[in-house]
């Protein structure tokens, strides 16, 4: 609508005395009807739409939804600048203008950067088809160091496994432990069943296809998972809805007494608001995946961990690692205490 009205005003050289209310109403009416919206054929949105359509049969639903998020964000950006973005304008100046816009609208940095990287992918796709672009100019400033996210240490998991809980929380507790020792998304581990168990050279493994990445994954079952199966008469726990699971694991962690204040970025739509809340309130189904990566990083080769989690690049995998090394911090504290005693108690 902003583009349509701006184009009309441009035709009048922004001479407001010549505005026709009838023409202005028609512009608004046309812009309000989604079917009437057409992007210019040499515009970025037009090429983005074509690229998304051409990949629809090759990508999963979640990836398709993510592509549409990038597309819609570019639509909003075009509305902000009140004119369509042509391929010839997608260069270093565009990146600066786009970053300034996203920052002013408080969009999450990850959303902003992923959108620019997606645009670069589209431009590279066009380059292969002989269309000249400035894809090489789409460089992003280095992302700020990621804030530590919430994980459960192995000591915390031991406490959770051993604590007394009401019967209605037993299944959620079992699934939480399973997620922390398999590193899978809730959409995958909540579908685990005995029918997916395979014997691989005497090892009990779970074999499945990840819903998001469509990767075939075969994992040997961790002893902690085998114990849970044993306590459930050889079966996995009963399935729980994702919403109920998220609610119940918060309650489990609260009852475990993990209420240390933590700073987290809470998403509201595509924006992130930083707030300080008790640790148990920050727990979500993704904590298992992050705990798995953090607890086993440095103990198991990264390539094997990536094979288990299904990450395609080490850069993405490292986003799941909590780099606060508690063992080193504990060792440093012991040295502090030893030096203090030697200094003041000798």
Main sheet overview: 3 strands, antiparallel
Query: What distance lies between the first and last C-alpha atoms, to the nearest angstrom?
Result: 78 Å
**CATH class annotation of the largest domain:** Mainly Alpha
Helix content: 40-55%
CATH architecture of the largest domain: Orthogonal Bundle
Mean pLDDT reading: 85
Helix and strand arrangement:
Layout: H1 2-11, H2 21-32, H3 44-55, H4 61-81, H5 92-104, H6 109-127, H7 154-162, H8 170-182, H9 186-189, E1 197-200, E2 203-209, E3 216-220, H10 223-231, H11 242-255, E4 261-268, E5 271-278, H12 287-296, H13 302-309, H14 314-318, H15 326-344
Antiparallel strand pairs: 1-2, 2-3, 4-5
Write a brief structural summary.
This protein is mainly α. The protein has 15 helices and five strands.
Task: Describe the structure in your own words.
This protein has 346 residues and is mainly alpha-helical. The protein has 3 domains: 1-38, no CATH class; 40-144, Orthogonal Bundle (DNA polymerase, domain 1), CATH 1.10.150; 154-329, hpI Integrase, Chain A (Orthogonal Bundle). It is 51% helix and 9% strand. The protein contains 15 helices and 5 strands. It has helices at 2-11, 21-32, 44-55, 61-81, 92-104, 109-127, 154-162, 170-182, 186-189, 223-231, 242-255, 287-296, 302-309, 314-318, 326-344; strands spanning 197-200, 203-209, 216-220, 261-268, 271-278. The strands form 2 sheets. It has a 3-stranded antiparallel β-sheet with strand order 1-2-3, with no helix packed on it. Strand 1 (197-200) and strand 2 (203-209) form a beta hairpin. It is elongated, with a radius of gyration of 26 Å.
